[in-house]
């Protein structure tokens, strides 16, 4: 890991509806290094998906700049692949064809048909889906669909892999298995990854750094935690690791203590302002 590979600088985001401006993000600044695995965590509705969609180029920030490998992001592109919580496979195409569609689009001119075929098979085998090439999405489980979605994203060889709660809809065992696979693939390919999660254990287990967001409206980055745990990480060994539990505690304390305090303070300030405005003497008590 060396350079600043993905950079968000002074990113602000407002959504506007019927003349009312809803400030969602304020002054988000983040540098991600090549090969880093970053998790974004924060309370529901704080703006995590908005950050990810801005990086993906699906949304344009109201202010600020996003750079990937020193190139400004203005639109979606094959250098950023997005995997959603609910797989987005085309239901009428087989597992193989779903990956083929992306591979043909990106490598039509740079790989031969035989090379493309090998590449599709390689990526499906990497996520242990080589045995189900001819199945339709309706014929495989939720975990298998997520695997195909991840294979499709990896097959695009993106500069940045964006994961929006990729394991959120899976049962605990499938989730654990897929997390382990993603860690193995990450150690092999050294992808740069930004992942949204609500799961504190998942964040600590997978990440090099955890980016914790404050509550909205006008959310920003409240704290960044470096997770200095050796890899490969074993989930069972980690359960007894004091550093692992320290990191876990830090994230929980940010989410459930520090953010609560900020919320209480803001509520108190609002109440005080409204009583001052209405001329009540209680505001001075
Ligand atoms: N396209 C949009 N138009 C208007 N408001 C939006 C739009 N997208 C998101 N928002 C608002 O922006 C805020 C942040 O939403 P976002 O989905 O980014 O949060 P989140 O942290 O990812 O939430 P969750 O964890 O529940 O998925 C919310 O108040 C949401 O209603």
UniProtKB/TrEMBL annotation:
Gene3D superfamilies: P-loop containing nucleotide triphosphate hydrolases (3.40.50.300). Keywords: ATP-binding, Cell inner membrane, Cell membrane, Membrane, Nucleotide-binding, Transport. Residues 265-285 are annotated as: Disordered. Residues 272-285 have a biased composition (Polar residues). It is a peripheral membrane protein. It is found in: Cell membrane. The keyword ATP-binding applies. Residues 3-240 form the ABC transporter domain. Transmembrane segments: none annotated. GO terms for molecular function: ATP binding. Its main location: membrane. InterPro entries: AAA+_ATPase, ABC_transporter-like_ATP-bd, ABC_transporter-like_CS, ABC_transporter_ATP-bind, NO3_transporter_ATP-bd-like, P-loop_NTPase. Belongs to the ABC transporter superfamily. This is ABC transporter ATP-binding protein.
